[in-house]
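Weekly structure sync - notes
Attendees: PM, LS, DV (DV joined late)
Agenda: review two folding runs queued last week.

Item 1: First target. Sequence and structure tokens pasted below for the record.
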Amino acid sequence: MHDAPGRLVLLGHPLGHTLSPAMQNAALVAAGITLRYEPLDIPRSVLDETIAGLRRQRAAGNVTTPHKVALANACDRLTETAKKVGAVNTFWTAIDGALVGDNTDVGGFDAAVDALLGSHRPRERVAILGAGGAAAAVLHAIERWEGAEVSLYSRTQRRAEELLDRFAVKSTIARDAERAVEEATLVVNATPVGLKDDTVPVSVHALAKDAAVLDLAYRVNETVFVKDARARGHRAQDGLTMLVEQGALAFERWFNTAPDRDAMWNAIRALR
């Protein structure tokens, strides 16, 4: 249990691209809550000091790249989901003063897959590009998918091995991104590639004919990866659905009530 937050923040570095303040502040206004959601762009060197101050203020909030794992290590308690993923994107201060961490990216990913495909399909062959906190959330979600198989590509072999060892999913490690996606029915970009520029995590020419694309990165006018995939006839979606849903689930953790999702989406669309 916890009281209403004394402060509401987003921790990350850099935060120039984030749409979270717009959607969360719209949800706060719709709910009649007078708090404001503040972005705190801070490097790792001052994260511990910042967390100590937020504890004193009985704060709650979100965490994004690159602080999700560090925040998990700083929390006094973690939900089962956060423990499994090993990363925190949502936190709050409990009545006893403990800092509690959760991971709503898992629920956000489920919602994004539903929006893209209608639902995940039996025996889905999933290519995951990346081996960070976002990839861990994706793998935790996929653990519940009947007969799913994963092909994972990371630039660091050891990191890929350590990640896959944590999840009960039939999986292989691909030598390169092209091999990871060649037989996939669902391709998930769980890297920041394409977030700031027009680079792509893999050429769309490498995709199987029936592959769908879910790019967890997002930009105001969509990523080039999504645009290129859609132009070649693939179902493709960026990370906005995941962003909104993980944010809505976080709002529920902070205030024990569901936010106005329409207000959140309207705020996002106003920026596109």
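Item 2: Second target, run right after the first with the same settings.
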Amino acid sequence: MSDFSSRRTHVVMVGNQKGGVAKTTTVLNLASALVERGKKVLVIDLDATGGATKALGAPSTGWHSSYDFLTGGAPPTDCVIRDDDEEVKLPPGVDLIPASKQLVELDEWMRRREQKWLVHQDIALKPIQELRGLYDFIFLDTPPQVTTTTLPAMKAADFVILSTMPETASTDQLADAMDDVQTCQMGPNPNLKLLGIVISAMPRPMTVLARQLNEYVGKACKDADGNSYRFDTTISRTTTVQEARAKHTTVLLYQGDSKVADEYRQLAKEVLARVEAALAKAAAPEEDRAGGGEAPMAAGAEA
């Protein structure tokens, strides 16, 4: 893995507090789109149900997993299944740390006497730090609700992407998820940035409800400078997504000329543009940041 040691790594947590809102689908297809743009990507599956692991056809037993990664059961690099591994056919350019059912044992592991001084929120910091420089992007695929792995992921991340669908129950959870991000920014991880909100499974043409919820997210979910967190690109509802998942691959590899594949490519461009805008703002002199506010994030800008 030393070939990638000069890369600047961006750690991105993808989440929401509701299941079934395309978090894993967003992670995998966004990763594949970033690979097309020359990026090297790692996906860490932190969900005990192993959504990303199953979607890529990777084993959940017989390998080091994200449980070992978090508990120090193995060196972080030893937990990685690489895209050139002959036994697991991962998408080119995408490596994986798989989940295992052992993740449900994290609470018990932290209650052991030898772990009595352990700070729960910090368990991901050291292993992720050891992977920085090896990848351009590390995606943390988190479970629904706030579980044992959610808070450590948020504390270790540089950015958060929230995933939702044009459904009332899904968008209702955004407020709680955004509150969690804000709370983390005020204490445990002041450098954490909410990169944006992606809406998936958008019907074409839009239903009245889908249009209303899309407009709601755009207007109600804004940063301090009034910029909407909603990504301009929305992901269409299509069976191509499920077909690709059944083949243990990404939409871009399964049907790269499809409309939804192009949507993920456009989303990747937006993500890169927003990352660059956030980095530029962080690097600007303090008086410039205080005076001018955050520049609008151009959706189609190259990064």
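Discussion on item 2: The CA atoms of residues 220 and 228 lie 8 Å apart.
Action: LS to circulate a short write-up before next sync.
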